[in-house]
Task: structure prediction
Amino acid sequence: MSFAHPSYLWALLGLLVPIAIHLWSKKEAKTIKIGSVQWLSESKSKQSSSIQLNEWWLLVLRMGIISLLVLLMAKPQWHSKVSNTSLTYIIEPELVQHTDFMSRFNEITDNKEIRLLHKGLPLKENEQDITTQHFLTDYWALASEMDALQTDSIVVFTKGFAKGLKGARPETKHKMHWVIIDSALAKEAPILAYKKKNGLHVFTGKSTPVATKVSKKNIKLGDEFTLNDNGDSLVISGTNPSKKIPVYVQKPIKIALYYTDSLQKDKFYIEAALKALSIYLDREVQVESSLDTEVVSNKEVDAIIWLSAKPAPKTAKKLLVFKEDALSQSMIIAGVAEHTFFLTKRIKSENAVTERLTEQLLQMLDINGEVEKFIAEVDHRSVTAAELETTVNDTKKNERQLASQHVNPYLWLILLVLLLVERFVAYKRKQ
Result:
């Protein structure tokens, strides 16, 4: 037996309160009416000066109620020894589908077990519904779950994708041995397509254990590439089996540019950069320039560029505001507020080229957001086993592994019964 919060046990000193109350409480005298006292003889009376405990049953019940309340706050737990498995193998679901890889586990003994590297760490017998699903593994979140397993040793087989490392490195009491099953082959797959006037732009992701890159090419519909009936998916028959990727229609990018006369030259440079961006992306960029005195609220645009010393308009769209900063290392920097950016320098022909104004405008506008969304599906960059290791807490390393059973629900039930009995006894004895 142990307590989650043993400091609350000091509250047991409160048992002195009902004892003190019962020691000094006096039972009311009972008055008996009689007709006459002339025939009563006087007798010697002896008064007891010792204080007697009043109502033993109520005292015991009330002390029991206080004791149970203190125990409930201390949260007692009943521990019992459990038998650990000698070794637990944890395998990434994608690897379970490979017969050659799984053949090494054919001779597994009873004191060993195989689990899947998935939320809940299910046993391999429950693999059917998991291996067919696509999910993003969070290695360190799963490592925290592994720490609760009743086992002496853990070996994890995984492909070690870099996208699976999220958050801070966890602290565990188990030493987990990570084995990276490296795939040296590069994986390449189309991820999406954009409709264009002269055909379709297909974006393809190519990933290796070292890097992931995205390329695009123009294609025309024919035997290899066909659209489905709704026109929102592209079927590629050259793959086995045929692959289907989503098709998006890119609308023109609408930008409202407001300027003051003193920043008119900066406006010309930004308009030229956006025109070059339109040619590079093969996508129309519509720029509507106006003086800062001609602001139109609630205009349907994708971004606002504010070249003025006046306060910028409040908007939920992307906003680029001119705000000079001599210490800034970049021409365009992100602000604290979401979707807000600052132009930190006056634009000249020299710094427009050297500091890549067009490229920075492209990053700010985030033109191909859909590509970033789908690139995770082909991202196969990997990490080393050392990068996957958790921080082992030596103070917990030699702790006995015990099965904890909370007894609070039973204590609540006993407390309820005692309260009912105490009220009943108090009512009968008029206490």
User: Anything to note?
Assistant: The mean pLDDT is 81. The first strand starts at residue 2 and ends at 3. DSSP finds eleven helices and 21 strands in the chain.
